[in-house]
Every structure is written in structure tokens, then in C-alpha cells.
Specification:
The chain has 44 residues and is an all-alpha fold. It is built from 1 helix and no strands.
Length: 44
């Protein structure tokens, strides 16, 4: 199996960073939705 090229390694790092950012945003949205649901329940 050949060694990854510099471009391939760079792409991998970029992908990892993008994934981390996407995950953070998804987590934030999930937290917001959970909070909204909790608030709705507490209003009842």
C-alpha cells in the first residue's frame, strides 16, 4: 500500500476540522431543541 501524498494528508486534516465544526453545530442545535422541549413541558 502506497504512502499518502501531502495533498491527501492535507485533505484528511481539512475533513477532520470540517467534521468537528459540523459536529459542534449539530450538538448546539440538538441542545437548543432539547431546551425548547423542556421549556414547553414546564409551561404546561
Amino acid at each position: 500500500r502506497r504512502r499518502p501524498t501531502i495533498d491527501e494528508r492535507s485533505n484528511e486534516r481539512t475533513n477532520e476540522r470540517t467534521n468537528e465544526r459540523t459536529n459542534e453545530r449539530t450538538n448546539e442545535r440538538t441542545k437548543e431543541r432539547t431546551n425548547e422541549r423542556t421549556n414547553e413541558r414546564s409551561m404546561e
